[in-house]
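Exercise 7.
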Amino acid sequence: MKKAILSLAMLVMACCTFAQDAEHLIKQYKKLKGAEYENITKSMKKQAKKEQYTNPKQYDLAQKIKKAHYITVDLSDTEREALRKNIENVDNYKCLYQQKHNTENILSDEYTLFPIRQYYGIEENGTIKDGIIRADFRAGEKMSTVILHVTGELTLEEYMSIMGFEETKDIKISKD
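Solution. The predicted structure, written as tokens, is:
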């Protein structure tokens, strides 16, 4: 009986060690060599006048966001896979949508803007309160990743619009 309880306790502890919150994930990746970090919450709040926005929907979206910060960092294929697993281990997060470009139809191999975007978060009744958007992009030979952490009370549509989420013949959207 004691062995069973001890085994169960160790299993719970192991699960808790791998789960983390989004803030810890951001701190972990902003420490990487060459990572660029920016907290854009203050700049969004400074641009608080509706007439400063070219699109009224952008203004409304900015007002709903409580916190937004991002990291841009160059990651290897192995590191990008580790990032995907790390995001999936953030407490209560799930992959809401994934957007992948059909890169065969893109004219230039020189620069492919966001061939993969993944939207993770906590969704309750169509509202996202906490989410991470991960976008990979290639500039020449270099592959970079943007990790954007957003908190607020956003509809799923507003959350997806943050990085121009839409499906076209060259961009496919899926839930997995």
